[in-house]
Design a protein that fits this description.
This protein has 20 helices and 18 strands. The chain has 521 residues and is of the alpha/beta class. α4 crosses α14 and α16 runs antiparallel to α17.
Length: 521
């Protein structure tokens, strides 16, 4: 009798264990590491731009099988998520990142604070409390809205010097980005590195947060060589001031042997390498933040370069996750920027396609519009610098107040397009902003022909005016210089099936809660 009971107990134990293995809650326990990747401003349209380029380019830069979103979608889970704040339809980066970081709805501009004004613990803070290693990586700056929302709590995203101080108190193991000026009150960077960084010390409290970071046992790095030389996982890497170089710079410089600036892919993979040895696992947030900046400027060429750079990073992370069963990657955006779209138009002669074998088009296929021939995407890729940098170069080199000749020259040299004298005049003309409410900064504002209520930055508006002119040749249309309420994609992948918990039509606050749940926080 006793032997029979023991045998039955043994069988029951095996059965219960088998049931646990099949239970999705058990699968969640397998997820020790979470990599959250945020493409700032990366709506479905921006992903569509990358897809079209990967499918049709003849440059050899990208092929269809290198389209990272396709890999993740084919092997993981795809969902959509709304990004709106409490009370409003359209979000900003701070609010949306706070949704993801805390799981609570917030208001525009808020960092780590809910819609009632209460501080809420973030997934990074909870992960740290649970004994996990933590890290933040961004190609903007570490005190910018998205990374800040995971390690600080302030009412306004503009409080970046306060954010820097709070982030050191939160003490993520690893922070890699730009933002030197928010850590210093004086020009003291030379005390820490020989790397030449153009920056402005923005602190007014006399504090030296780099000194404080060293007291907290952070290894400091200010270039790729110093970063690679760090020995531990606790690293503060600040490689520029306001932001790291954009995707056009990346294309021109990534293979140079004397390059000192790390790429987004290098920062991401080095962060994973340093954090993955932690026994209790890790949480890592990686931001591809300058997709948003290109969107605000209506700069399609730079946005394409940002998406290509992000795609390289995503492929590297995907390859890592596919070899590690305890790791989940979730890729999303905080919002879409620019109301961007690829669109057919009437700017180029209608195309006649000949040589088709079927009976309906023996004399050729006659397109009624230019449905965007593939060479337009390759022309877009020829851009050598961002349109923002192009205008900054124009400001430095102009010999008169409105140097139309120089502007035309710079555009011809750095893009695949030419503009006329009248078009140059249009780009340089000013007027009072019709929605400027008498404020000084809106006097002599770029004379935009279009929905000026949606453009509030002088430089970005002038770039948008240039984009109006070259847009038909690119097959590109824009609707705003700001954000839209377009729901964004959520692409999840893991080897342990935990990605299956991230399907459906979500709100980012719900997505934030699911991120915490999958780590058992």
């Amino acid at each position: 009798m006793q032997k029979t009971l023991k045998k039955n107990f043994y069988r029951l134990s095996i059965l219960l264990f088998s049931l646990l293995l099949c239970n999705p809650l058990f699968a969640k326990a397998k997820t020790k590491n979470l990599i959250l990747i945020i493409g700032d401003g990366m709506g479905p349209q921006q992903i569509s731009l990358l897809y079209s380029f990967a499918e049709f380019t003849k440059t050899g830069v990208l092929s269809p099988d290198q389209f990272a979103f396709g890999k993740i979608a084919d092997n993981g889970t795809v969902a959509y998520s709304a990004t709106n704040p409490e009370l409003y339809a359209v979000t900003d980066s701070a609010c949306s990142a706070t949704h993801l970081a805390t799981g609570y709805k917030s208001l525009p501009g808020a960092i780590g604070v809910d819609s009632q004004g209460y501080s809420r613990p973030t997934i990074l803070e909870k992960a740290k409390k649970a004994g996990k290693a933590t890290g933040l990586v961004s190609d903007t700056r570490i005190t910018h809205a998205t990374p800040a929302s995971f390690a600080a709590h302030v009412g306004s995203r503009d409080e970046e010097t306060e954010i820097a101080e709070q982030m050191l108190k939160t003490e993520p193991d690893l922070m890699l980005s730009a933002g030197v000026g928010d850590f210093l009150s004086e020009d003291k960077l030379k005390e820490y590195t020989s790397q030449n960084i153009d920056y402005k010390a923005r602190r007014t409290d006399g504090k030296d947060l780099l000194k404080q970071a060293k007291k907290q046992n952070y290894e400091l790095a200010f270039n790729i060589q110093e970063l690679k030389a760090t020995k531990g996982k606790k690293v503060l890497g600040l490689f520029a001031d306001k932001g790291m170089p954009d995707g056009t710079w990346y294309k021109e410089n990534k293979n140079k042997k004397d390059r000192t600036m790390p790429t987004l892919k290098e920062m991401a993979m080095l962060a994973i390498e340093k954090l993955e040895g932690e026994e209790n696992g890790y949480f890592l947030m990686i931001e591809a933040g300058q997709i948003d900046w290109a969107g605000h400027r209506n700069d399609a060429g730079t946005m394409l370069h940002q998406m290509i750079e992000a795609n390289e990073m995503l492929n590297a992370v995907y390859d890592h996750v596919s070899k590690n069963e305890d790791t989940l990657m979730v890729v999303t955006a905080d919002h879409e920027t620019g109301a961007f779209g690829l669109a057919y138009n009437m700017s180029r002669p209608h195309q006649v396609v000949k040589g088709l074998k079927g009976p309906f088009w023996k004399s050729g296929f006659h397109a009624k519009q230019d449905y965007l021939r593939y060479d337009a995407l390759d022309d877009m890729y020829q851009q050598k610098m961002s349109l923002y940098d192009l205008l900054e170069k124009y400001k430095k080199e102009k010999t008169s107040k409105k140097d139309k000749k120089l502007l035309r020259k710079l555009i011809a040299e750095n893009t695949a397009y030419n503009i006329t004298k009248d078009q140059a005049k249009y780009i340089l003309d000013n007027k009072d902003h019709p929605y400027g409410q008498g404020k000084k900064k809106y006097k002599k504002f770029p004379k935009l022909q279009g929905p000026s209520a949606f453009y509030s930055s002088s430089t970005n508006t002038r770039i948008a005016m240039l984009s109006q002119i070259i847009g038909p040749k690119q097959g590109v249309t824009w609707g705003t210089g700001g954000h839209t309420a377009t729901p964004v994609g959520v692409f999840s992948f893991s080897k342990n099936d935990s990605h299956k918990d991230f399907g459906g039509f979500l709100h980012h606050s719900e997505l934030g809660m699911r991120l915490q749940k999958v780590l058992g926080l």
